[in-house]
Structure formats: C-alpha cells, structure tokens
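Record filed below.
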Amino acid sequence: MPVTEPSAPPSLDEGILEQMLRDLDFDVVLHLVETFVAELLERSALLRDAAARGELTDLQHEAHALKSSAATYGAAEVAQLGEAIDAACRDGRRDDALAGAEALGPATKRAAAAFADWQRRYA
C-alpha cells in the first residue's frame, strides 16, 4: 500500500489534548504542545533532508521518532505518515518512503496550523 493513499486522518485529534487538559495544568499542556510543535517542524525538516539525500536509514530514524511523538500529541495525520514511512524504509520500499516524505511537508504544516488554532481557542 503506498504511503500517500488518500485516507488521511484529521490533522489533529483534539481528544488527546482534551485528555491532557484533564490530567495536567493548562500552562503545562500549552508548554508541552509548543515544545512538540517546534520538534515537529525540526524533525520534519530533518526527515525531508534525509529523503533528499536518499538516506533511508536516517529517514527511518526520523520517521520512527516522529510517528511516536505525533501520536502522543494527537497529530494523527503526521503519525500515520511517519508510520508508513518507517514501514516503507524497513521493508526497502524506497519509492514509497520518498513519496511519504514528500507528503509529510504539507501534513506538518496542517498539523502546526491545527495546533495554533487549538491554542487560540483555549488561551
């Protein structure tokens, strides 16, 4: 199955953030989300750089880290793409991995925008 199949989940699963708000102080959640979004943007850039260099080992490393943190914070679309890229690298499906890396840029932007919207609504 190609990693760019059009059945993408929403950019942000707000239920995860709502659970965090029930468990933690708002300021703590806000700080964690801000830290995650910065990491998301950084890891996405590193992942795209690895793809541009054709380095599947580096690409898999970044995709694996990204899928886990994205799932933790509710960035569902990014988590799904990270999982697909990780699996494609692991299985030696170079073209699928590179296509997933290309799709990650727009997904990352959508996730960052969704987090910013969430922050504006809760602040």
Observations:
- The mean pLDDT is 92.
- Helices lie at 14-23, 26-53, 56-73, 76-90, 94-122.
- The two ends are 40 Å apart (CA to CA).
- The chain has one domain: 14-122.
